[in-house]
């Protein structure tokens, strides 16, 4: 039945005058039972008042008034509902009515008529309520972890492997637009609705007709970036790889100057070198890693260097990655279309023609070429230990470097598909991968990324076809132009900025799922680290054998950049890495190799790691998209802020005091608002919506206006997993040590102080709003 019977002790106050003695209570209960019994029978439409009266009068003479066992209020269920569940309920509770008299008969008649009216009203209300409600009761609000697993269990590594191989073959024969159309067709065939191709005309910096070269002035020997001598044969043997061994948006030209080894190019390195040599218009020999490349180039530019030879020291790479003769590409673009900085590349937008984004001539070269420049033997191991590449201080090397690139406008395409939510369709969970763009690198990496997102869409749509939908809208994006500075994601973000600022709840990155096979590495916003830690148990059924959870909030090089730094969106990314890579210098992933030294299928032959990444990411997506209350932890943000200030030489009493107040507000918010909202018995829809709006905007307070080149504007993210201090304060402190003025440090301290204060005010204002709403209702 679509209703529950009201118990005897829960009747309306207007009926209390008829229930002053035990006799009448027993009689009312008996009548109530009789009515329910008759209503269950097929002859309900023949129901007559006289039959009920006669039945009660016949039973009244044998009444037994022992009512002690009858406790209608002891169960939250009405007796009509309990009758359907307990077969012995009738014999256990049915009592005879007491002897009646004319006065009692009148009262009973009134009670009976009132009950009939209430019953008919209940039938009508139940009928129309049921008619107006959707017949499919599988609301995503009731989706539990068991159903998540039902969705995810259809994901199989073998299916991902087949998809991956098809994409790799597709790359060999199709251009960027055709690949985007293929992805759209595939997503549409899986059932994803409203799949769009979003195109932007952007300024790309491409290599010239001939590869770059480096010539030793002393001997006249000419080398290509991979270390091979300049010759027509070498150019034909690897023409494409040589052409695309370049720094996109570098300055063009020819520069002949002395090569000066600046190691990793940090402030201390440059301070030491400036004391020894005149660096004006010289060529820096720079190692990639430890700090963002754009930041190091900005320091070299300020110092007065004219060119840069960029390389990766083999000692910084896993032993399995033999990249001595491999060249690579880097992009000097901080993000988006360089011709429309800060605004989308739509028709009619003003275009700035910027062929280069730096005054430096930058050329990536292989480690083998560096060894030739500094005349080192091939075997550089000492007692089994790797010896880093280093140019002797007492030796001079003069080289001539030649760089030629061209800039032109080309179309970059994004593939965007929507799965609309049923409860909060205006709240978006964005899932991002990237696809091949003409002239892009990491050819197999993009196929791995695309195969993973397609596998999750396939599993999800199988459930959607059975009538289920998520509460919040899931937006699937395959970005174009990633290799040139995340151009596709930036342009789409700038295009829809106003909508995304208000509606985006989280971003889940599937950018580079497999970079190694020895360690699962998770990057997450502080507010999502607790959720990610729970999901990591999926990959480790036996807790006693689980390795330490590797979760951090650190800078990552992928299309999540815009959402983290300009929208303040909580972000999650799962990847498999080599342990050596995690232990080595950060930011090595800024280098894009044209051919993977270790192929994807060699690292994950059965695609089990792909399957794990897909399921881990999928469960996070499902939980964020379906939980009534967003699974974000406000207190973890406050704790992260306090941890970032521990042991920092730049910390001031004002910063510590503000961080303490932020923690107090977050604790109060967590206990007073989060706890009741997560309890279905106390949950109020209006307050839940207010709470979710507050949760999704928590990180926006930590976006600073000014950050050094290559550094995140979102100060909750650190430079790498080994440092816990605020990155902007670390940089400012290093800058302060090399200069007499501490103005830069004071500016950085002020920005961090204002961010923490803004977050504390944000939480406090939210608590005040909730309190005022509660008072208003009372």
TrEMBL record:
Residues forming the Peptidase M28 domain are 414-576
One GO cellular component term of this record is: membrane
Q: What is its main location?
A: membrane
Question: Where does it reside?
Answer: Membrane
Locate the region Disordered. 1-21
Task: State whether keyword Membrane applies.
Answer: yes
**Which positions, given as ranges, span the membrane?**
108-128
> Which CDD domains does this chain map to?
M28_PMSA_TfR_like
Cross-referenced PANTHER family: INACTIVE N-ACETYLATED-ALPHA-LINKED ACIDIC DIPEPTIDASE-LIKE PROTEIN 2, N-ACETYLATED-ALPHA-LINKED ACIDIC DIPEPTIDASE
Similarity comment: Belongs to the peptidase M28 family. M28B subfamily.
Q: What is the protein name given in its UniProt record?
A: Inactive N-acetylated-alpha-linked acidic dipeptidase-like protein 2 isoform X2
Q: Which organism is it from?
A: Bison bison bison (North American plains bison)
Give the gene name.
Answer: NAALADL2
């Amino acid at each position: 039945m679509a209703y529950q019977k009201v118990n005897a002790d829960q009747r309306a106050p207007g009926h209390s005058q008829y229930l002053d003695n035990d006799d009448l209570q027993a009689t009312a209960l008996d009548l109530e039972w009789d009515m329910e019994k008759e209503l269950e029978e097929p002859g309900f439409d023949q129901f007559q008042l006289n039959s009920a009266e006669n039945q009660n009068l016949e039973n009244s003479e044998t009444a037994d008034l022992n009512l002690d066992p009858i406790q209608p209020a002891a169960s939250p269920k009405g007796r009509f509902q309990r009758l359907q569940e307990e077969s012995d309920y009738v014999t256990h509770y049915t009592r005879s009515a007491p002897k009646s008299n004319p006065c009692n008969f009148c009262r009973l008649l009134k009670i009976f008529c009132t009950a009939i009216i209430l019953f008919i009203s209940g039938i009508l209300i139940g009928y129309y309520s049921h008619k107006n409600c959707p017949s499919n009761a599988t609301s995503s609000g009731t989706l539990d972890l068991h159903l998540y697993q039902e969705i995810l269990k259809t994901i199989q590594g073998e299916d991902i492997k087949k998809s991956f191989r098809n994409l790799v073959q597709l790359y060999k024969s199709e251009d960027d637009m055709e690949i985007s159309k293929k992805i759209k067709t595939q997503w549409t065939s899986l059932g994803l609705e409203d799949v769009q191709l979003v195109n932007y005309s952007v300024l790309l910096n491409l290599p010239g007709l001939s590869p770059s070269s480096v010539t030793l002035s002393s001997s006249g020997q000419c080398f290509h970036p991979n270390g091979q001598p300049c010759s027509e044969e070498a150019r034909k043997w690897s023409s494409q790889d040589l052409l695309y061994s370049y720094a996109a948006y570098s300055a063009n030209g020819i520069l002949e100057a002395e090569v000066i080894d600046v190691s990793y190019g940090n402030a201390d390195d440059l301070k030491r070198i400036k004391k020894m040599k005149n660096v004006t218009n010289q060529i820096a020999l720079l190692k990639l890693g430890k700090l963002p490349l754009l930041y190091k180039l900005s320091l070299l530019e300020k110092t007065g260097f004219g060119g840069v030879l960029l390389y990766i020291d083999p000692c910084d790479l896993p032993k399995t990655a033999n990249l001595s003769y491999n060249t690579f590409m880097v992009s000097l673009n901080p993000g988006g279309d360089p011709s429309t900085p800060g605004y989308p590349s739509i028709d009619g937008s003003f275009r700035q023609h910027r062929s280069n984004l730096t005054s430096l001539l930058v050329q990536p070269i292989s480690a083998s070429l560096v060894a030739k420049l500094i005349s080192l033997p091939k075997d550089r191991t000492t007692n089994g230990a790797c010896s880093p590449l280093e140019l002797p201080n007492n030796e001079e090397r003069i080289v001539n470097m030649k760089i030629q690139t061209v800039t032109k406008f080309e179309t970059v395409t994004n593939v965007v598909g929507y799965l609309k939510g049923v409860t909060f369709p205006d709240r978006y969970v964005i899932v991002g991968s990237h696809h091949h763009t003409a002239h892009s690198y990491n050819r197999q990496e993009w196929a791995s990324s695309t195969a993973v997102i397609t596998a999750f869409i396939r599993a999800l749509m199988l459930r959607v076809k059975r009538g289920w939908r998520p509460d919040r809208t899931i937006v699937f994006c395959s970005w174009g132009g990633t290799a040139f500075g995340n151009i596709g994601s930036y342009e789409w973000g700038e295009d829809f900025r106003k909508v995304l600022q208000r509606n985006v709840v989280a971003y889940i990155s599937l950018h580079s799922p497999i970079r190694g096979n020895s360690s699962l590495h998770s990057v997450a916003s502080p507010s999502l680290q607790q959720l990610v830690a729970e999901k990591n148990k999926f990959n480790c059924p036996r807790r006693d054998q689980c390795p330490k959870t590797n979760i951090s909030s650190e800078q990552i090089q992928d299309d999540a950049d815009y959402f983290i730094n300009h929208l303040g969106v909580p972000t999650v990314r799962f990847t498999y890495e080599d342990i050596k890579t995690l232990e080595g210098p950060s930011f090595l992933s800024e280098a894009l190799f044209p051919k993977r030294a270790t192929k994807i299928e060699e690292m994950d032959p059965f695609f089990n790691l792909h399957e794990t990444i897909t399921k881990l990411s999928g469960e996070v997506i499902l939980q964020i998209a379906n939980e009534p209350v967003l699974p974000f932890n406000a207190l973890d943000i406050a704790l992260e802020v306090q941890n970032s200030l521990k042991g920092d030489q730049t910390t001031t009493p004002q910063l510590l005091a503000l961080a303490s107040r932020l923690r107090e507000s977050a604790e109060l918010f967590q206990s007073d608002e989060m706890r009741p909202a997560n309890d279905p018995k106390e949950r109020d829809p209006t307050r839940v919506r207010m709470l979710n709006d507050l949760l999704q905007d928590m990180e926006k307070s930590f976006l600073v206006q000014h950050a050094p080149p290559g550094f995140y504007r979102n100060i909750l993210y650190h430079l790498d997993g080994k440092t816990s201090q605020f990155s902007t304060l670390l940089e400012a402190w290093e800058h302060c040590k090399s200069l007499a003025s501490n103005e830069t440090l004071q500016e950085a301290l002020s920005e961090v102080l204002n961010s923490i204060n803004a977050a504390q005010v944000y939480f406090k204002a939210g608590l005040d709003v909730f309190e005022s709403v509660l008072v208003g209702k009372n």
